[in-house]
Amino acid sequence: MTPEALMTTWRQLWRETSQQVGDRREARWLIEEATGHDAGDVLRRGDQDVDDEAGARVSLLVARRLSGEPLQHVLGHWGFRTLDVVVDKRALVPRPETERVVELAVAELDRLFSRLPDSQLWAADLGTGSGVIALCLAAERPAVRVLATDCDRSALELAAANLAKLGAAVACHVRLLEGDWYRALPLECRGRLDLIVSNPPYLAEREWAGLDPTVRDYDPFGALVAGPSGLEAIAAAVAGAPAFLEPEGAVVVEIAPDQAHAVLELAFEAGFSKARVEQDLAGRPRVLVARR
User: Fold this and answer.
1) CA dihedral in degrees (269, 185, 157, 151; nearest 10)?
2) pLDDT tens profile 246-283
3) What is the pTM of this model?
4) Within 10 A of 239 (CB to CB), how many other CB atoms are there?
5) pLDDT tens digits for 153-166?
6) Which residue in 245, 258, 247 sits closest to 207, CA to CA?
7) What's the CATH number of domain 79-291, 3.40.50.410, 3.40.50.150, 1.10.10.10, 3.20.20.70?
8) Neighbour count for residue 245 (Cβ, 10 Å)
9) Does residue 223 contact residue 92 with C-beta atoms inside 8 Å?
10) CA distance to 54, 109, 132, 182, 251, per residue, from 240 (Å)
């Protein structure tokens, strides 16, 4: 067999990578990440040979994916609404359910803006992780100032890296604060926030062992598991909110579908006059929205 016969074309690379990972779309993303060529470039190159260096980079990413590493970690970044954010083991991989949280949080901001169109609103993102919620609020509603908190310094470093990608015009609207829930917020925030939003840990300890390995082995334990019941972090976020919110303010919190009834009770016990649970895109109860 001649050396030329061993060469792989771009067409063959896409086909073989798709077969290896079992998904043509994943194969495209891996090839694009490894080679710097988008799908259109790959198709145009068709029967041209893939150089050894590019082929080796694709093989490395495929091997990582086949080992069980999440696709988002293999790529090193992931899309979330209008953003492309860095992702790694320091925080949760952004999920579609959390995009619904942002959608509802933005709707609450718009409600408040409609009443006071010239006002500057303040929001807090508790347990910000990679920063995606806070960054989306700042990017999509530039008149909002966002305080983003986390007790994990490494997560805040990841959030800072993502914040830096937005540019100074947006980044100056977000302040990262280290600390546990409301204890991270300045005292002058009490009674002055318009929105509190959070994607807190909401799994019970008993659920950890049964998680998919791509989640259990790569996402931080503390970002997933709240405690024995799974309601501990949600309860802290909801109970503390009234003291920090303006009279018309709202709290928006991601929850597990089976927690809807218990979370509504927590909201009413905390003194919220209006509370509801909104569904995610799959039709499951997913987001608490409570207003003072």
Assistant:
1) -50
2) 999 999 999 999 999 999 999 999 999 999 999 999 99
3) 0.90
4) 16
5) 999 999 999 999 98
6) 258
7) 3.40.50.150
8) 25
9) yes
10) 52, 20, 22, 7, 10
